[in-house]
Amino acid sequence: MPPPHTSLLDRWLPPDSRHGLLRRGAIVWGVAVFIGLLKWVQKPQGLDTAMVYSFAISTSIWFCTDVMRIAGRRWLRTNGPHYWSLSPRMVLFMAGGCLLGYVAGTAAGDVYSRQSTLGLLVQSPSSFWGVVLFSLGISLAFLAYFYQREKGLALERQATEARLKLLETQLEPHMLFNTLANLRVLIETDPPRAVAMLDRLGDYLRATLRGSRTEAAAGTHSLADEFARLNDYLELMAVRMGPRLRHTLHAPDKLLTHPVPPLLLQPLVENAIRHGLEPRVEGGQITVHAGQDGPHLLIEVTDTGVGMEPTAMPTAEGGFGLAQVRERVASLGSGSSAGQVQVLSQPGQGTTV
To answer: N or C end of the chain: smaller count of CB under 10 Å?
Structure first.
């Protein structure tokens, strides 16, 4: 049973289904205009009557097959976010939905036009069945198209998630090897700091393992989680660098729940420390700031390190950490919705990603 606080809308149409549902409905209504115009040209009836029949039948079939398919997901044994399956139960449901939607839409059109479509069965059976088969054929074509489209989107999402997981497994050893190399140097030069760094590393790995399990169960990772893990890493690096490393993390409260890929920012901070602050005797500041740029999430990682010459930018952009961040950001969307990574740097003035 759903929890008592769940709204009736959430019980019928879960939030993850509504965007796709409205998108498919818009496609159906767009094609209904074309069908209405076609019927108006072919038969001597008013444009308004042709449009009413087209929209009534299209909307009824869409409601009975698409909306009710999601509302009846438990009986159909389907899961989100697409709620599709190719099973006998689903085929039977869709066939019944098409027939019921056609009858209901035709009845609505008959009420408006004050005529009986069933009367056409007596006057011209071939015309009647031609209209029925034409309407049902279009409906089945729509269903086949929507099924293939949603199946393709599901496969694309699975491929993207698998790719992100692969990139994550590459990033974690990269960070660990860098840290162990730093730890080895400290063991020889400053054993007390090496012990402190080892303790911090243990805390960081425990937090990372705990966070990974939570993310695997929930399927999400918020900006707050990313900042918390990044802060653990910076505290770990601060043990090695001491007062030479200063850091600030800032994000408005309203953005802390925004989803981001795990370990998205850590490679950028690693680069800032290794290539920006470590070469500078006095070290410097790393600032990570999250904000909004219109409808987009904007995250800036800035250091006050040695910076780069413009001729060195292509080399920096091809490095392991930044290359992985570019791949992960690019995989989050397509076209105009795809994320972007920009690098700004000046010699002696630091770098911003």
So the answer is: N
